[in-house]
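REQUEST ID: PR-0412
SUBMITTED BY: lab tech R.K.
PRIORITY: routine
TASK: structure prediction, single protein chain
INPUT:
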Amino acid sequence: MKKIATALVAIVAIEHLYILVLEMFLWTKPAGLRAFALTPEFAEQTAVLAANQGLYNGFLAAGLIWALIRKEDGYPLRIFFLSCVIVAGVFGAITAKPSILLVQATPALIALIFTLLARRSVA
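STATUS: complete
OUTPUT:
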């Protein structure tokens, strides 16, 4: 259970690194336009805002990576950063695009559940 929880947290961290790259570096490129269903004009107008969003996703990934590096000590960090991802995903689903709930919040929720179960089985 512990290895599954760790793998799921790592997947969420990798996902947010990927989002960082899409939002900060590929927003106006074909991959970014396709991923976010943007027109080139809109992408150009919102590139700075997207880079800002990407930076925040990078901080979420960094927090999760930090939690993984800390191993057992990182358990509270895992809970905190996975919760932040879930809140960001729910907010994004409400304010921007409903699919964000599935793409961002759901993997974090699954990782959080497995993290809590793994911790409980150790105690």
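NOTES: The CA atoms of residues 21 and 77 lie 23 Å apart.
REVIEWED BY: pending
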